[in-house]
Amino acid sequence: MRAASHMSIRALYKDQSRQVKLMKKLRIFWNFSRPFTLIPPVVGIVSGALVGIGATRAPFRWPLILSAAVAAAALNAASNALNQICDLENDRLNKPLRALPSGQLSRVEAILFTSALYIASIALVAWINVQTLVIYLIAALATYLYSAPPFRLKSHTFLSNFTIALIRGNLLKVAGWAAVASVTNSLEPWYIGGIFMFFLMGATSTKDFADIDGDRAAGCLTLPVRYGPILTARLIAPFFILPWTLLPLGVVTRYLSANPALVSALGLVLVLWGTYVAYLINRNPTAMVTQGENHPSWRQMYWMMMTGHIGLGLIYLVH
Question: Is the peptide bond before 248 cis (omega within 30 degrees of 0)?
C-alpha cells in the first residue's frame, strides 16, 4: 500500500512537471510571435470591415469579420516568426535574449510553429470570399519574400519599407473591407489603405535603429544602416505627418464618403500627434540606437496607427 502511494505521488509530480513545462513552452511560443504587434492587424481588419459596412451599407456579418481578424493576427505572427528564423544571425547581435538565439526554441520547433500559423491564417479566410482569400495569399507571399532567402527583400533599403507598408498598411485595410463588401467597385478602400501605407513607408523604420549592428553584419541595408540615424530621422519624420493630411483631402475630393467634419478632425489630431513623434525622433536620433524596440517613437507609431484605424471605423459606423 505504501509503495503504491509513493508511486501515485511520483506520477502526480510528473504530471505537474509536464504541465509546467508545457505552459513554459507555450509562453515561449507566445513571446516568439511578438504579441504586441498582433493588435494592429486585428484592429485594422475590424476597422476596415466597419468602414466597408458604413460606406456600402453591407450587413454586419461578425463571423466573417472575426475570422478575418484572427487570420490577420495569425499571419502577422507567422511573419514575425519567419523573420526571426531568417534573422537568427542578426539577432545573436541585436536581440540575443529572443527565443532562437537564446536556445529556448529549436529551429525545427520554430519552423513547425511558423508553418502552422501560415496554414491557419489561410484556412480562416478561405471560406469568406475569393477577394479576401486572394489578398491574404498575396500578403503571405510578400512576408515570405520579405524575410526568406534568396529574395530577402528586407536587405534592400526601399523595397523593405515598401513591402511592410503594402502588407500592414494597404492590404490590411482593404482586406477588412473585402470581408464584407467588394473592393473592385470603389477606390475608397484603396485610398484609405494608401494613407496607412504612406504612413508606414517611413514609420516602419523606427524598428531598425536598434538593429544597425546586426543588420549591417547581415547585409541588410535598412535606412539607418545606409544613411545613419540622424539623416534617417529627418527622412522619416514627414511620414508621421503628411499621410494624415490625405484624410481631409479625401472628403474634399469625395474619395471618402464619411462625415467630412469628423474625418477632418481625426486627420488634424493625427497630424498634431505625428508632429510630436517627429520631434521625438529628431530630438536625439542616436538614442534610438540604444533603446531598441522600446523607444517611444516605436510605440507611438503603433498607437497612432491603431488610433487611425479605430477612428475611421467609428466615423464610418455612424455615417
Answer: no
Task: Return the domain boundaries, the chain.
Answer: 44-53+60-317
Global pTM reads 0.87
Using one digit for the tens of pLDDT, what is the confidence trace for 204-231? 888 888 778 777 877 778 888 889 888 9
Hey, what CATH class is 44-53+60-317 in?
mainly alpha
